[in-house]
Each structure stands twice: as structure tokens, then as C-alpha cells.
Design brief:
This protein is an alpha/beta fold and 514 residues long. It is 35% helix and 24% strand. It has helices at residues 16-26, 30-46, 50-56, 61-71, 78-85, 90-95, 147-155, 172-177, 191-203, 256-265, 288-293, 313-323, 331-346, 381-397, 451-459, 467-478, 486-496; strands at 99-102, 105-108, 110-116, 121-127, 162-166, 183-188, 211-215, 227-232, 269-283, 299-311, 351-365, 367-372, 405-407, 411-420, 429-439, 446-448, 500-502. It has an eight-stranded mixed β-sheet, sandwiched between helices. The protein is elongated, with a radius of gyration of 27 Å. The two termini are 53 Å apart. Mean pLDDT is 93; it is low at 505-514. Bound molecules: S-adenosylmethionine. Residues 143, 149, 152, 166-169, 172-173, 187-190, 193, 217-218, 233-235, 246-247, 250 line the site of S-adenosylmethionine (SAM).
């Protein structure tokens, strides 16, 4: 492993306008790179296999040079780099930390690549991650766009007004938030991150009146301020209270970083403001939901907590050690693994949960739902989070009995039966053991339903009877009176999950969008 040259990047933003011009004119964007490489070489790039990419770039002009220079980290001759980066000249690119010399040639000292997360190409700067050539991951390594960054982007509620991006890193959340928001305050503890973010904002044509970059820990840089949106992908790695890399270690024990961010976010939300955060929590003998619920204020927010995955301690430690370039088979790597696992054992940790926490400021008693969604999600979670919080607001004031509902458009009923061999006079046949109603979009929620429940759902129409009347008819028809409160609880769950959609009645209810 060789240490990367760590030229300061404080002046990187000064070449951003020129780089933008070069990138646009040579089509160093998501579509341009794919067009030049073709699907096979592009897939090879994703697998960090440089040879097919290098071959596809032969005689491919400036875009080929940019791909070799910036995506493969290949050394390239001055004349080619000059042509590809112009109007930025090579010496300036070296001076501001974009490039470094390699003999007579030049290669990238940092990562700059295009990304299209649904708003067209954006370029982001970060430190080299070692995918294409060996590097040592420095303590203040600026993380590039990873799966966690993308999952937070997809889960974020549409940004509006003033946004806080806590722990901005390469600025991926800040840059994307500004496609809808008026202003972003981006914070980080490392000046290197903020310099990369400044360059990222500049190369995407975002002027300095639209952002504020502040150094400091947690909510320290925004004391007393409130925001319409908060996004945070904090350094939430769960482990001993030590810091080896600032992008993942908080210095706080176990899941205290997530606790801190989740517990304090509400103090920085404007009325009706929403926070979308990635978080991790330890799983011990108790229900994980109780632990996360204990972080959330009793008053003032609607909260939706989604556990996406749980890792066992061994898998978790091995994954994060490899992420930082440690070999769990080697002496030092093995010692780190042992310390980490011993810490988990002392703390009775049996698993590490990971997911999202959404909070909306309401000024009302807190409503909290914590649930697991461990299956693959095709649709982005952001619109669903927004709709979920709107539905909870509606439920707070709605009179369910007098409300009308329509079943969501894409519901399906799944019935599972097993063969009941019976005996004697009962004969044989299929006996239903469970029935579930499925929503076919969004997080694809399912709810178990009995005969009564499925008949109730089928009997609801936007222009039909109110819920209470449909329930009374069903009771008369079946001779089965539901347990008091049971319909309300059943319908509350279906409304939260968008399986039943209230028929809007502005006189009685307050709605967001459904
Ligand atoms: C996981 S990275 C997230 C980067 C980026 N927001 C993303 O979504 O990819 C976490 C960032 O938080 C920063 N950080 C670490 N400790 C912090 C603290 N106490 N307060 C604020 N930011 C911190 C790190 O420097 C790093 O840039």
C-alpha cells in the first residue's frame, strides 16, 4: 500500500468553472461515458477492471483521456491532459490538488466523476478510494458517493426552503438538495471535506449565495437555527469510542452518534420541517424498536423509523475492517477485529441494525412507528416517507368512522392454504392458513387480513358509504360484531401504509398529498 500524495484542495474550487466547461464540451457526463465505453466496458468499470475500459478508450479523443485520467487513474501525457482539461492548464490542476506528477506524465490525485441520481449529471470531488490503484485511506479521507449516500438521496423528502446537510463529506447531499431547495448549510469536521464540497458546488454551477459551509461537530455550527429539511449520513459505524477515519467513526461509543443526531435533529427543524437520516443501532436482548424509540422526543414530531438490515457482529466487524483497508487475517487486522468483537460482547450486542429515521416537526404529541422493511425496494423511499408523514397528520385529526376510503389501485390478495387431509366425515381439502393484502408499489407493504378485514376493504369506495356504515352492514351480514376499537386499529395501519386512501374532505380533515 502506498500513501497518496495529499496536496491540499482548498483552492480546488477555483478551477471548477473551467473543468465544467471542459467536461461539458467533451461529454464527460453519465451518458457520454456510457456511450463511449459501451455497456460491457462500463460494467467492467463498475467492477474496477481497468483493461476493458482502457481498450474502449483507445483513440477516443479528449473524452477517452478524461476517462483514463479520472476514472482509471492512469498516467497520461501532458499534451493529452492539456487538451482534455483546457481551459484548465495542467500546472494549475497540479497546484490545486486535482492532479499529481508521475514521472513525465500526470495522473489524478483525487476522484472527480459524473453522477446522475435522477436530476441529470452532477460532478463530485472526493478522495481516491483505491479501486483503481492502491492508496492508504487517510484519517480525514473524503468519502465518495457510495451505496449509503445513494440510499439517502433516494430516501430524502423533496428538498425545499433551507436545508441542513450534517456531515457533508463530498457534498453529494448538498449538491442534490439544491435542485429544489433555496439554500443549503453544509457542515463537516474536516476542512478537506468542505473544500471538496465547495468545488462540487462550483462545478455544478451553484453560486455561493445559495450555500454556507461551516466547520464543526454535530449541530454545533448551527446552534439556535432551524431548517425546513435536514439530511444526515453521519459517521454512524458502531464500535468502540475511537476514531480511525472521520467519515465513519464518531468517537462516541456504540450507536451514540446515531442517537445524538436523531435525538437533537428535532431542535433544528422549522415548523413542519422534515429530517431524513441514516442511522445504526445495536440490537441487544430487547426489541430494537424500543432502543430507537427512546432517542426520539416524546413531544413534537411524527417519526417513521425503518430498519433495512441487521448484521451479526462478525459480519459487521469484518466488513468495516475491509472498508478501511485492514486485512482481518493479518496481525494488526486480527487484533482490531478481536478488540471490536470483545467490545460488542461486553455490551451484549447480538446484532447491528441499520436504516432510516424520518422526523417531521408537528408541535403535537409524538407519533412513532418503527418497522422493518428488509426486502429490496424498487421505488425511492423519499416520496413514500413524505406521504407516510402526511397520512399520519391526517390520522391525528380524522374521524375514521365517518370517513370514506378507497383501496389503493394496485392491491392484491394472497391466500395461502395447506392441504387438510381431515378424517372421517370431514373429508379432505385445502384449508386457508393465512391471507394477506399486498400493496404493489412503494415499499410493497403487506397486512394479514381475516375474512372480515378483506370484505371491509372490498366494500370501501370513495363515493360509497362511510367506514362506520360499511362496518355495520358487514356485522349485520356476517353476524360477527368486531371487537370494539379493532376496526379503527386495523384501518389506522392500512392508512399508514397507503393501502386505504382517505377520500379527502377538507371540512373535516387536514391533508397533505396522498
Ligand atoms: C459517511 S460520511 C457522509 C458523507 C456524505 N454526506 C454522504 O452522504 O455521502 C460522514 C461525514 O461526516 C463527517 N463527520 C464526522 N464526524 C462528524 C461530526 N462529529 N460532526 C459533523 N460531521 C462529522 C465526516 O467527516 C464525513 O464527511
Amino acid at each position: 500500500m502506498t500513501a497518496p500524495q495529499r496536496t491540499p484542495v482548498d483552492a480546488l474550487h477555483t478551477i471548477a468553472p473551467g473543468l465544467r466547461e471542459a467536461f461539458r464540451s467533451h461529454r464527460y457526463d453519465v451518458d457520454g461515458v456510457l456511450d463511449l465505453l459501451g455497456t460491457d466496458a462500463h460494467a467492467a468499470l463498475g467492477r474496477a477492471e481497468p483493461v476493458p475500459v482502457r481498450r474502449a478508450c483507445r483513440d477516443s479523443g479528449e473524452l477517452g483521456t478524461l476517462i483514463r485520467l479520472l476514472l482509471l487513474n492512469d498516467p497520461c501525457p501532458r499534451t493529452e491532459v492539456d487538451r482534455a482539461l483546457g481551459p484548465v492548464d495542467v500546472d494549475t490542476a497540479v497546484a490545486v490538488g486535482l492532479l499529481e506528477t508521475d514521472g513525465d506524465a500526470f495522473r489524478s490525485a483525487i476522484d472527480v466523476r459524473p453522477l446522475d441520481a435522477g436530476h441529470g449529471t452532477r460532478w463530485l470531488f472526493s478522495d481516491l478510494d483505491g479501486a483503481m490503484r492502491p492508496v492508504t485511506i487517510a484519517p480525514d479521507h473524503v468519502l465518495g458517493v457510495g451505496q449509503a449516500s445513494l440510499s439517502l438521496l433516494r430516501a430524502s423528502v423533496e428538498p425545499v426552503g433551507r436545508v441542513l446537510d450534517l456531515g457533508t463529506g463530498c457534498g453529494v447531499q448538498a449538491v442534490h438538495a439544491l435542485s429544489g431547495a433555496a439554500h443549503v448549510t453544509a457542515t463537516d469536521i474536516t476542512s478537506r471535506s468542505l473544500a471538496m464540497t465547495r468545488a462540487g458546488l462550483a462545478i455544478n454551477g451553484i453560486g455561493p449565495t445559495r450555500y454556507d459551509l461551516r466547520t464543526g461537530e454535530w449541530f454545533g455550527p448551527v446552534q439556535g437555527e432551524r431548517f425546513d429539511r435536514i439530511v444526515a449520513n453521519p459517521p454512524f459505524v458502531v464500535g468502540p469510542p475511537t476514531v480511525t477515519h472521520s467519515y465513519r467513526d464518531s468517537g462516541l461509543d456504540l450507536d451514540r452518534a446515531s442517537e445524538l443526531v436523531v435525538a437533537r435533529a428535532a431542535d433544528h427543524l422549522a415548523d413542519g420541517g422534515t429530517a431524513c437520516m441514516l442511522a445504526s443501532w445495536i440490537v441487544t436482548g430487547t426489541d430494537w424498536r424500543e432502543r430507537v424509540a427512546s432517542w426520539i422526543p416524546d413531544h413534537g414530531v411524527d417519526a417513521w423509523v425503518v430498519q433495512r438490515d441487521v448484521a451479526d457482529p462478525a459480519l459487521y466487524v469484518g466488513t468495516w475492517l475491509r472498508d478501511a483497508g485492514h486485512d482481518p487475517r493479518s496481525g494488526p487486522g486480527a487484533a482490531l477485529a478481536d478488540d471490536w468483537l470483545a467490545h460488542f460482547e461486553r455490551s451484549a450486542v447480538t446484532g447491528i441494525g441499520f436504516g432510516f429515521v424520518f422526523l417531521r416537526s408537528t408541535g403535537e404529541p409524538t407519533d412513532l412507528l418503527a418497522e422493518e422493511l428488509s426486502h429490496a425496494l424498487d421505488d425511492p423511499l423519499g416520496p413514500e416517507a413524505s406521504a407516510y408523514l402526511d397520512r399520519v397528520a391526517w390520522l391525528r385529526t380524522a374521524d375514521l368512522e365517518t370517513s370514506r376510503f378507497s383501496p389503493a389501485e394496485n392491491l392484491a390478495l394472497e391466500q395461502i392454504s395447506t392441504l387438510d387431509r381431515g378424517s372421517g366425515e370431514y373429508g379432505t381439502g385445502w384449508a386457508e392458513v393465512v391471507a394477506r393484502v399486498h400493496r404493489g408499489d412503494g415499499p410493497r407493504w403487506t397486512h394479514e387480513v381475516d375474512d372480515w378485514g378483506r370484505a371491509l376493504i372490498a366494500g370501501l369506495r370513495p363515493d360509497g358509504l362511510a367506514l362506520g356504515d360499511v362496518g355495520a352492514l358487514l356485522a349485520a351480514a356476517t353476524g360477527v360484531e368486531p371487537v370494539p376499537g379493532a376496526i379503527g386499529e386495523f384501518v389506522d395501519g392500512l392508512v399508514r401504509h397507503g393501502i386505504l386512501l382517505p377520500e379527502p374532505d377538507p371540512g373535516q380533515t387536514r391533508h397533505g398529498h396522498w
